[in-house]
Design a protein that fits this description.
The chain is built from 16 helices and 13 strands. The chain is of the alpha/beta class. The protein has 2 domains: 185 residues, 3-Layer(aba) Sandwich (Rossmann fold), CATH 3.40.50.2000; 160 residues, Rossmann fold (3-Layer(aba) Sandwich). The strands form 2 sheets. The chain has a 7-stranded parallel beta sheet with strand order 3-2-1-4-5-6-7, with helices on both faces. A 6-stranded parallel beta sheet has the order 10-9-8-11-12-13, sandwiched between helices. Helix 5 links the parallel strand 5 and strand 6.
Length: 371
């Protein structure tokens, strides 16, 4: 048995792949410890770790001198806290999943001589991972072509982005048949920053669809609690069958039953869409410093697995036109679904677990035997 410390920023995009790896390493008989930030309370309730340690961290701010200094002190303090905790845990290896909360514990692990893997979920190497790459032994990538990686000299492996067990369990669900009479199932979600924009854009777009399509629609949409009433009324006036909620516990299963998804293009969303093999209209989160969601979406669009819709230029009319074109062309949806599945990496978690075991010195792994 080995001990692994997983390090991740406390949001779903970082914690979900860390959770998938924790599940796989536990199946292999290893012990898991998580180091993260205070946001883990919102996303990490089911994280399969023996211990969860909250480590002080901060996001550097070059534009604000006061925040830069106070953030620097907090990061140094976080390194000291993590250094002490790692001394007690004595892990065989650490795996970092990005976000600035990863920075203090990963640096502390390097100072203790503990080998480490950095995992990048996006098609753009994140700023925290760029800063940490000098302290890592291996960089694990989700996409073969990842921006800002070529100049780095450390070892790189393409593993894919691990998805949760519940997604893997339904990964072989066939794309649902769609003929001229059957229900058309559309799933819309986008996290807290996507839910509001989609609440504004999607219902009026769907109201513009031809009546014969609207009558067949079965819409599932995630909404913020404060938007539920107005969105419900918009769909009622459009005479569309809809199910709304602020959160869907069974979202992967609903995605698997969908003919089309409308969502953001965060790394976990892209990974799950591709493992499930579902086509999507992707609306990248605007304003991101490195346009990571847009770069993720471009991978799907280039493969014919999805369609990018920029929020800045998206209107109910343009979205309604796109939906009408797609929902009246089952062959195009089927082709895009197959392209999405071809991009999927259902074995990503095994590949990453093999790397972790190799680094921890367990011996010959399946990855080594097949190379």
């Amino acid at each position: 048995m080995k001990t692994f410390v997983l390090m991740a920023g406390g949001t779903g995009g970082h914690l979900f792949p860390a959770m998938a790896l924790a599940q796989e390493l536990k199946r292999r008989g290893h012990e898991i410890v998580l180091m993260t930030d205070h946001r883990v309370a919102n996303y990490g309730a089911d994280f399969p770790a023996k211990e969860i340690h909250v480590v002080p961290a901060a996001t550097p701010s070059l534009s604000n001198p006061i925040k830069f200094v106070t953030g620097g002190f907090k990061i140094v303090g976080g390194i000291a806290v993590a250094f002490g905790k790692l001394g007690k845990v004595r892990p065989d290896a650490v795996i970092g999943f990005g976000g600035y909360p990863t920075f203090p514990p990963f640096v502390a692990a390097s100072l203790r001589g503990i080998p480490g893997i950095l995992h990048e979920q996006n098609a753009v190497l994140g700023r925290a991972n760029r800063a940490l790459s000098r302290f890592a032994d291996i960089l694990a990538l989700s996409f073969p072509q990842t921006k800002f990686v070529d100049a780095l000299t450390l070892e790189k492996r393409v593993t894919g982005n691990p998805v949760r067990d519940r997604v893997r369990a339904i990964a072989r669900t066939p794309y649902p048949a769609l003929d001229g009479q059957s229900p058309i199932r559309v799933v819309i979600f986008g996290g807290s920053q996507g839910a509001r924009a989609f609440a504004d854009l999607v219902p009026p777009a769907i109201a513009l669809l031809p009546e014969e399509i609207r009558h067949r629609l079965q819409v599932v949409q995630q909404c913020r609690a404060e938007d539920l009433d107005r969105v419900t009324e918009a769909y009622r006036q459009a005479k569309v069958n809809v199910e709304l909620a602020a959160f869907f516990e069974d979202l992967p299963e609903r995605m698997a039953r969908a003919h089309l998804v409308i969502g953001r293009s965060g790394a976990s969303t892209i990974a799950e869409l591709c493992v499930l093999g579902r086509p999507a209209i992707l609306v990248p989160l605007p304003g991101a410093i490195d346009a990571d969601q847009k770069n993720n979406a471009m991978v799907m669009e280039a493969a014919g697995a999805g369609w990018i819709a920029e929020q800045a230029t998206l209107s109910p009319l343009s979205l309604g036109t796109r939906l009408t074109t797609l929902l009246t062309n089952p062959d195009a949806l089927q082709t895009a679904a197959a392209a999405a599945r071809a991009l999927g990496q259902p074995l990503a978690v095994e590949k990453l677990a093999d790397l972790a075991e190799m680094l921890a010195g367990k011996g010959t792994t399946e990855m080594e035997r097949t190379q």
